[in-house]
From TrEMBL:
Domain of life of the native organism: Bacteria
This protein's name: Hydroxyacid dehydrogenase
Record-stated family: Belongs to the D-isomer specific 2-hydroxyacid dehydrogenase family.
Keyword Transmembrane helix in record: no
Record Pfam families: 2-Hacid_dh, 2-Hacid_dh_C
InterPro entries on file: D-2-hydroxyacid_DH (IPR050857), D-isomer_2_OHA_DH_cat_dom (IPR006139), D-isomer_DH_CS (IPR029753), D-isomer_DH_NAD-bd (IPR006140), NAD(P)-bd_dom_sf (IPR036291)
Length: 349
């Protein structure tokens, strides 16, 4: 009897070889084939109806022929692809959420969708702290000035930053990443507030939960975004919220571009209502080279690299392998975007 076909679709960050290595002996149960997309040498983009994808629908239609299980990173799983991938029953995305998958269409086609939450939580949390410190102390700007031969050691009372030790930092969103950020900040001696109506706090939590977003905004010296992007959280830090921040506050966004109104942020930076801001994510990526934000001396940015560590890639493939093992052993998935499909598949057996 021929073996089932398993496809691993890697890229220049999470390679197909890394995926195969993490599968270990599970790979022996399949006829394994490999493919690759150009991410992140070429940034992800919207493909048909899915977001943050890499590769093409044409490639997916070709490589998924006869494949029943696929492990991928940014490869697009669109309705068009699924209509021609007749054998596919499980698609595992090595990401915190399957935004490059049309989940409703997958449910219609009886394809279970798994994902790998928190695989880059530590990486993103550490990058958040780095961005916070860079914004408070203007590290990138003074570094660049030295390379230009300029000695920018002329800080004044008005231009000097402030310390995390005596600061209050407010976290909007308190999931896996926000929790790690809070733990790191407490090591500095920082008072950490969090606003997340869905968070379940414990007695030993490093953050203090506040009842309203307004309270967090009014008390915080630094605000850092860590919420998921939903209709509810879009522009959760908009013009009205930014106006409520203390004069001289700092804003950091290493979560999703849609969480913040960047036009309002730019105005607040230009007026010096905000001392500084740092962002790793934007509503439009790549950020246009002519963006006026890039002209601001008190704005620090990185190109959506917060989650990009070797450990994050390894964790993603290991979680994916664990999910495949669960699925093969008892038809379950710990992290499934459409669990109703699993019930349908069990009934079909």
């Amino acid at each position: 009897m021929p073996q089932e076909k398993l496809l691993v679709i890697g890229d220049n960050f999470i390679s197909s070889q890394l995926m195969r290595t993490s599968l270990g002996e599970l790979a022996d149960r399949f006829e394994v084939t490999e493919a690759s997309t150009p991410f992140p040498i070429e940034p992800f983009r919207n493909i048909a109806e899915v977001r943050e994808a890499s590769g093409s629908e044409e490639q997916m239609v070709d490589v998924l022929q006869g494949v029943s299980i696929c492990i991928a990173h940014h490869a697009p799983l669109t309705r068009r692809v699924m209509e021609q991938a007749k054998d596919l029953r499980l698609f595992i995305v090595c990401r915190g959420g399957p935004v490059n998958v049309n989940v409703p269409a997958a449910t219609e086609h009886g394809i279970a969708i798994a994902y790998t939450p928190a695989r880059n939580a530590a990486a993103t949390a550490e990058h958040t702290i780095a961005m916070m410190l860079s914004a408070l102390r203007f590290i990138p700007q003074t570094h660049a000035a030295l390379h230009r031969g300029e000695w920018k050691g002329d800080y004044t009372w008005d231009s000097a930053g402030f310390e995390l030790e005596t600061a209050t930092v407010g976290l909007i969103g308190y999931g896996a990443i926000g929790g790690i950020v809070a733990r790191i900040l407490r090591g500095f001696g920082t008072t950490v507030l969090c606003y997340d109506p869905y968070a379940r706090m414990t007695e030993d939590s490093p953050a203090i939960q506040v009842a309203t977003l307004d309270e967090l905004l009014q008390r915080s010296d630094v605000v850092s975004l860590h919420a998921r992007e939903t209709a509810e959280t879009r522009h959760i830090l908009g013009a009205e919220q930014i106006r409520k921040l203390k004069r001289g506050a700092v804003v950091v966004n290493c979560a999703r571009g849609a969480l913040m109104d960047y036009q309002a942020l730019e105005q607040a930076l230009r007026s010096e209502h905000l001392f500084a801001a740092a962002a790793d994510v934007f509503p439009e990526e790549p950020l246009p080279t002519g963006s006026s934000l890039l002209q601001l001396p008190n704005f620090i940015t990185t190109p959506h690299i917060a989650g990009g560590t070797k450990q994050a890639a390894i964790k993603a493939t290991r979680i994916a392998a664990e999910e495949l093992g669960n699925y093969l052993q008892n038809g379950t998935l710990r992290y499934c975007a459409n669990p109703e499909v699993l019930t349908q598949q069990k009934v079909a057996k």
